[in-house]
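Lecture 7 notes: from sequence to structure.

We start with a single chain of 270 residues. Read the sequence below before looking at the structure.
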Amino acid sequence: MRLWHPLGDKSIPGREGLDLIGAATDGLGMVPPKTGNEKVKLAAENASEAVVTPIRRPAGLVDEVYNRVRADIMSLKIPPDTRITIESLARNLGVSQTPIREALSMLEAKGLVTKQHLIGYCTAPILNRAQFEDIHEIRMLIEPYAARQAAVKMSDDAIAELGKLLAKMRPKKDSETRSTYDQFAEQDSEFHERLAQATGNALIADSLARMHIHLHIFRLSYSRSITSNAHEEHEILFRAIETRDADAAENAMRAHIQKSHARFVSFARA
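Now the structure, written as tokens:
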């Protein structure tokens, strides 16, 4: 039989030939070509490795898409109760459909979009007057109590962190945009959620968190005066909590909710 030989093309009988080839290749540090079966096996192994190797994408891409779409929803650039197509968003933002889908799922969890059978994703409708009044009633029942409990139960560290959050929320003069307005709405929601968590009552905290009250209220109108007035009211509330004055904290929260109602009630649709 004719076999490949590292020193030339020679005819070497079967077993002896294989032994000679092994000795020759060992001495020269050479490896003979793969047989047909070995080539197939190697190709399969390489293909398997190629499949399991993850495809990397830019870090934070989903968050960036989420923030862009959310800002457009909060500012009403994407109107309420409007169908959102994944294809058009992907085309407009210059990304694939995968981060769009993930971002829309995150927005659905926040209550800013809904997923409807045979339709797809739609922006959530604006609160109507009845819904707005229902939210106001729930807030008046729960949040003054939460503020009172926060003044009593919140740890010094938790109060310090609340103060840091409040400092971040301070509106900057002549620099507010729809994007910063959206950010204020998110931080406002966190501020109130921390007070609810301070009650130690998981049902209270969970109920308020699930309603996404502040995000829906801030969608009703965009105005620079809204954030500045709300922040001033938050500062009064925070000082009461910081000094452990439970009565003052409860009254400050009640006044804040009533003023918030007055700011937005005219924008809730009938």
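The radius of gyration is 32 Å. Keep this in mind for problem set 3.
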